[in-house]
Write a structure and sequence with these properties.
The structure holds two protein chains of two kinds.
Chain A (H helix, E strand, L loop, with lengths): L3 E5 L4 H9 L5 H6 L3 E5 L7 E3 L6 H12 L8 E5 L2 H6 L3 H18 L2 E4 L14 H4 L2 E10 L2 E11 L8 E7 L2 E4 L15 E2 L4 H6 L5 E2 L3 E6 L5 H14 L4 E5 L4 H9 L6 H5 L3 E5 L7 H15 L3 E5 L10 H17 L3 E7 L19 E10 L2 E11 L9 E6 L2 E6 L1 E3 L2 E3 L1 H79 L16
Parallel strand pairs in A: 1-2, 1-4, 4-5, 12-16, 12-17, 13-14, 13-15, 15-16
Antiparallel strand pairs in A: 6-7, 7-8, 8-9, 10-11, 17-18, 18-19, 19-20, 21-22
Helix pairs in contact in A: 11-12
Chain B lengths: L1 H13 L4 E8 L4 H17 L3 E8 L17 E6 L4 E4 L5 H7 L10
Parallel strand pairs in B: 1-2
Antiparallel strand pairs in B: 1-3, 3-4
Classes of the chains: A alpha/beta, B alpha+beta.
Chain lengths: 520, 111
């Protein structure tokens, strides 16, 4: 803040210091350091009698004195808040007008920047139609209520010597002072990162080309109520914090404590991340602010916290703060803004039962890089969750529907059963799987039985072969023995005849064999 | 404004204060400042009973003093005493209004 002095017509110095303390300004300290001088000017018509010619030289003198009292070189800025009181305090309007004109000239000659406040008049910018003509720059502030939600807006009405923006911008007053953020990005010049970040669910990363989302991309999770959008988002939060990156979570439906409790039931403990300063929740009712205020406050939060991942849960909440067209325009700017800052955006969208799933109420589907659809699959009297990737720009992604299970160890994705009757999930899938398992067992048993029979037959055959071989062996041995004994007999017979012949001294031509064998 | 000051006039009529302490704020020797001083002196001499004190403060010399009496217009006459404090702005050329401002009714003249 440069050196300034303020002429307050409506608040005393103490009141002013008190009032702006809530905006983060410490006026007493500035006054002490001689950076600021505050002069309270009090005019009460009933206490003043006008008796002829006068001018406002007293005001000039006081202002000049205040300007000179700042440091050694004098104030650079002067605030006059508000000149209206001069008109109501003094009855001679002609004198006041002439003197104010002189005041503006005098301030310009002094080389100070003056900020003059004035109330809006009926059909004119200021009630007395004076200030806006003498000023070089006019800012118009207003406060509009639409659908019970009020939004402060600021517009540059004129600014001599500049090509100023002509649009109205919402502005925010909070403990950090006033913030105005230009909310339209004119060019599409986002950087496109090739870095990939995990979705927190390994099976989903596999579906997304094996590596998860692109950094800085915008991811939409849409589905009907109770389908697990927040749970899936919290997995991404957990993964982000595990990487040591900051994450900002805008929750419009659940409180921080409620989210902690609910996520613990699926095995996610987010509280330590908050304590470590990696995770910050911004919990607000969507109707608390107008859309533009929401956007401005999101911008502010992002600027101060510098997250790498922003969750908005759910974006459909914004519909309650404005019309569809307004909400859509706001979301476009939000997605645009986050993309240009290379912040991954994870938005959840609540689809109402019966409405088209592949459509967001705020019509931002075309801006989205990765769109995951969570769908209820109803079959056989039960409801199960299915997840598939509707689109994911720039990566080869799975076209399969996966069954999405919320277990106490987090989200599990399983293959769904595709049978002749379509997709089977839940108990239908389980029973189908059991049936298949049983059939497989029966088959396996049948094969094993056949294999055993075969082995037994072989064994029997082999046994028969062994018996036959044994028999043959026995026969063979018997026959050989017979052959040998026959041969031996023949030899013996020959020998005996020879012996007999020799004993009878018979001719060698042979005679019948004598039975007397034993003679010698 | 006039009707408001009438009961005061009545009050003053019955009990004229002894001491008048008046302070005139001017800015240098501007024509309006000079005229105011001349007019004030004349009115005091003609209409005030008792003692009166006129202090002239030149804000060009002492700009610091403007704050204390909440001076915006020049010239400004401040009635410090009797209480309550009254402010009269202008060159005091309108005698009647000046007397009303001082809560002195013209009828008390010489009284």
């Amino acid at each position: 803040m440069s050196r300034a002095c303020s002429l307050a017509f409506e608040e005393t110095g103490e009141e002013l210091a008190q009032n702006v303390r809530s905006l983060g300004f410490d006026l007493d300290d500035l006054i002490e350091k001689k950076k600021l001088a505050v002069d309270y000017i009090y005019i009460e018509r009933s206490e003043i009698e006008e008796t002829g010619e006068y001018d406002l030289e007293g005001l000039f003198i006081r202002l000049g004195y205040a300007i000179d009292s700042i440091d050694s070189i004098g104030a650079k800025r002067v605030v006059l808040d508000t000149l209206e009181t001069l008109f109501s305090g003094l009855s001679n309007v002609a004198i006041v007008r002439a003197e104010l004109r002189r005041l503006f000239r005098w301030l310009k000659e002094k080389g100070v920047t003056s900020i003059v406040t004035a109330e809006r008049g009926d059909g004119t910018l200021t009630r007395h139609g004076l200030e806006e003509y003498v000023a070089d720059c006019v800012l118009s502030l207003d406060h509009r209520v639409a659908g019970q939600i009020s939004t402060r807006r600021l517009r540059v009405v004129k600014y001599r010597g500049s090509t100023h923006a002509t649009n109205e911008f919402p502005f925010l007053i909070d403990e950090g002072g006033i913030s105005v953020l230009p909310i339209t990005s004119l060019q599409l010049q986002h950087e496109a990162s090739i870095e990939r970040i995990s979705s927190g669910v390994p099976a989903l990363d596999v579906m997304l080309g094996g590596q998860g989302f692109f950094r800085g991309s915008s991811v939409l999770l849409s589905g009907t109520a109770g389908v697990g959008k927040t749970s899936l988002a919290c997995h991404a939060v957990d993964a982000c914090c595990q990487r040591g990156e900051r994450c900002l979570y805008f929750a419009f439906e659940e409180s921080e404590a409620q989210l902690f409790r609910n996520m613990r039931s699926i095995g996610l403990d987010l509280e330590p991340w908050v304590k470590k300063g990696l995770l910050r929740f911004q919990v607000a009712r969507p109707t608390m602010n107008g859309l533009e205020m929401h956007l401005t406050s999101i911008y502010r939060q992002v600027e101060t916290f510098q997250p790498r991942l922003v969750i908005v849960d759910p974006i459909t909440s914004f519909l309650s703060s404005g019309t569809d067209a307004e909400a859509s325009s706001m979301m476009i700017r939000l997605v645009d803004y986050l993309k240009s800052h290379q912040i991954t955006a994870l938005l959840t969208n609540l689809n109402h039962a019966g409405s088209a799933l592949e459509q967001t109420n705020v019509s931002i589907s075309s801006l989205i890089d990765t769109w995951l659809l969570l769908q209820d699959l109803e079959l056989n009297g039960e409801r199960n969750r299915g997840l598939y990737i509707l689109k994911s720009r720039g990566m080869a992604h799975s076209n399969q529907i996966r069954e999405f299970l919320l277990t106490e160890k987090g989200i599990q994705l399983t293959e769904v059963y595709l049978g002749p009757e379509g997709v089977l999930t839940g108990s239908a899938r389980l029973s189908q799987e059991a049936k298949e398992k049983a059939t497989a067992v029966v088959r396996r048993l049948a094969v094993e039985g056949k294999r055993e029979t075969l082995a037994r037959r072989q064994q029997a055959l082999e046994a028969q072969i062994a018996v036959l071989q044994l028999q043959f062996q026995t026969d063979k041995e018997e026959m050989e023995r017979d052959i040998a004994s026959e041969q031996a007999y023949v030899v013996k017979l020959d020998q005996s005849r020879d012996e007999m012949a020799r004993s009878r001294k018979a001719d060698s031509n042979g005679l019948p064999v004598s039975p007397k064998k034993g003679r010698k | 404004m006039n009707t408001q000051s009438l009961p005061n006039c009545h009050e003053v009529q019955t009990e004229q204060p002894k001491l008048w302490q008046l302070r005139l704020y001017v800015a240098g020797q501007s024509p309006k400042s000079v005229a105011a001083f001349v007019n004030l002196k004349r009115i005091c001499e003609e209409h005030l009973t008792g003692e009166f004190e006129i202090e002239v403060i030149d804000l060009i010399e002492n700009p610091r003093l403007a704050k204390d009496d909440q001076i915006v217009a020049i010239p400004t006459l401040v009635r410090k005493l009797p209480e309550p404090i009254r402010k009269i702005i202008g060159d005091l050329s309108d005698t009647e209004r000046t007397l009303v401002g001082l809560q002195l009714c013209p009828s008390t003249k010489g009284g």
